[in-house]
Design goal:
mainly alpha; 80% helix; single chain; 305 residues
Length: 305
C-alpha cells in the first residue's frame, strides 16, 4: 500500500472510532434500568472478557506476564482514571446531561495542554495562553449559567486527560494495556455485580434477554472504537487525529439538542462559543507549527556520508 492509501485507511479507522464514541449516548441510554454503577460494572467485565479473547486470538496473552511494579502502578492509575471517566459519562447520559458531557470532551484537549505544562514543564506560546484563557472564561460563563461548576464536564475532561497521560508513559501496546486495566478494575466490578444480585437490585437476569444482551454488548461497544483508534494512530499523523476528535462531542451535542431536547439557553451557547473559539485558536496554531517544523526538516541538508 502507498503511504497515501495507508493514511486514507487510517483516517477511516479514526472516523469510525470517533463516530462510534459520538453515538454512545444512544447506546448507553438503552441501559438505563441497570443504573450508572451497574452499567459501569458490566462495561468493565465484558470489555475485559472480550480483550482476553482478542489477546488469545492474536497470540499475545504472554504479554501480560512479567510486568514490573512500575508498569502495574501505571496500569492501576490508568484503570482508575478511565473508570471515573466511564462512570461519569454513563451518569451524564442516564441523567439527561449529554450536552454537559459533550462539553467535557470539547474541553479535554485544552486540559491535556495544561497537564503538559504542569507535569512535563512544557512551555506555552502566547497563542496557547489565549486559548486557555478563553476556555477558563467559558467555564466561568457556564458555571454562572448552571448555578454551579459543570462538574460532569470537568470530571470527564480531567479524567480522560489523566488517562492519556498514563498511556503516554505506559510501556504497553493498546491491547495489552486495556486488558491489564480491566484486570485491575474487574474484582471491584464483579464484587459490585454480586452485591446487586444478592440485594435484588441487579437487572441482568430480571429485565429480559434483550437487556442482558445489551449489557454484554457494552464490552465490544467499548473495545471496538479503542481498537480502531489504536489502528488509526499507527497510520495517520497526530494532527489528523486531533482534528477528527471533535467529531465525538459534536455528535453528542447534536444528540442532546435534537433528540433529548436538553435546554440550551443563550448564556450556555455563549460558553460553548468561547470553547469553540479556544479550540479553533489552539488547532490553527498546532497546524501552523507542525507545517513549519515539517518545512524545516525537509529543507535541512542531508549529512555528507
Amino acid at each position: 500500500m502507498t503511504e497515501r492509501k495507508i493514511e486514507t485507511v487510517g483516517a477511516a479507522y479514526g472516523v469510525g472510532a470517533y463516530v462510534m464514541w459520538g453515538a454512545f449516548p444512544a447506546f448507553f441510554g438503552l441501559l438505563g434500568p441497570a443504573g450508572p454503577g451497574g452499567i459501569l460494572a458490566h462495561r468493565i467485565v465484558w470489555t475485559l472478557a472480550l480483550m482476553f479473547v482478542v489477546l488469545a486470538v492474536s497470540g499475545r496473552i504472554g504479554s501480560l506476564r512479567g510486568l514490573g511494579v512500575r508498569t502495574w502502578l501505571l496500569v492501576s492509575a490508568a484503570s482508575t482514571a478511565i473508570a471515573v471517566n466511564w462512570g461519569t459519562y454513563v451518569y451524564g447520559v442516564t441523567s439527561g446531561r449529554v450536552i454537559e458531557a459533550a462539553l467535557g470532551y470539547f474541553i479535554n484537549p485544552l486540559v491535556s495542554v495544561l497537564l503538559g505544562v504542569v507535569i512535563f514543564r512544557e512551555r506555552l506560546v502566547p497563542v496557547q495562553i489565549v486559548a486557555l484563557a478563553l476556555a477558563a472564561t467559558a467555564v466561568l460563563v457556564i458555571t454562572v449559567d448552571y448555578g454551579h461548576p459543570p462538574y460532569i464536564a470537568l470530571t470527564l475532561a480531567a479524567s480522560f486527560a489523566l488517562y492519556g497521560l498514563c498511556k503516554k508513559v505506559m510501556p504497553l501496546d493498546p491491547r495489552t494495556s486495556l486488558t491489564a486495566e480491566g484486570i485491575v478494575a474487574a474484582p471491584i466490578a464483579v464484587g459490585y455485580l454480586v452485591f446487586l444480585a444478592f440485594t435484588g437490585a441487579g437487572t441482568f437476569f430480571g429485565n429480559g434477554s434483550g437487556h442482558s444482551l445489551l449489557l454484554m454488548a457494552a464490552g465490544p461497544v467499548t473495545a471496538l472504537p479503542l481498537l480502531l483508534f489504536g489502528a488509526a494512530a499507527q497510520r495517520v499523523p497526530l494532527r489528523t487525529l486531533g482534528m477528527l476528535q471533535y467529531l465525538t462531542p459534536a455528535l453528542q451535542m447534536v444528540w442532546g439538542i435534537a433528540v433529548l431536547h436538553e435546554d440550551m439557553p443563550p448564556s450556555r451557547w455563549v460558553g460553548f462559543a468561547l470553547i469553540w473559539m479556544a479550540l479553533l485558536i489552539f488547532s490553527t496554531d498546532l497546524l501552523v507549527r507542525t507545517r513549519r517544523e515539517r518545512r524545516t526538516v525537509d529543507s535541512t541538508p542531508a549529512p555528507v556520508q
